[in-house]
Amino acid sequence: MTSYPIGNSRLTIVATDCNGDNKTYFIVAGSNNFLTIFPSYGSESFQVSTRSFVISPVNSIKASDFNSDNVQDLAVPNYEHSASGLLFNTCS
User: Fold this and answer.
1) Could you report the per-residue pLDDT of 74-85, keeping only the tens digit for each?
2) Cα 78 to Cα 22: distance, rounded to the nearest angstrom
3) Could you give the 3-state DSSP secondary structure of residue 43?
């Protein structure tokens, strides 16, 4: 088993193909206000992501194509602030 650094405050994780390359990405969100994306090498291993986006504390993540452009977007509800956000994927 391989471990990947995500900090000590994790709440939820989702696995999805973010850009249509048939490789699974892991997206981890936590109460530490970070959403961290781990891209796949495609060989059952993942890159250690340096791409973390600062957002409000996240309680869950939902991946879906919310704007019908054939790539996965992310919905991140925040119950603490009675709000939610949509992160539209602009990767091709």
Assistant:
1) 888 777 777 777
2) 29
3) coil
**At 84, is the secondary structure helix, strand, or coil?**
strand
Structure tokens at 89: 């994927």
Upper half-sphere CA count for residue 12 (Cβ side, 13 Å): 17
Extract long-range pairs of 77-80: CB within 8 Å, 24+ residues apart: 80/56
Radius of gyration of the chain (CA): 13
| Distance separating alpha carbons of residues 7 and 49, to the nearest angstrom | 12
pLDDT digits (tens, 9 = 90+) for 30-42: 766 777 888 887 7
Res. 66 pLDDT band, cuts 50 70 90: very high
Q: What are phi and psi of 4, to 5 degrees?
A: -125, 135
Residue 54 CB contacts under 8 Å (≥ 6 apart), including other chains: 33, 34
> How many angstroms separate the CA atoms of 73 and 87, rounded?
6
What is the predicted pLDDT for the residue at 82?
76
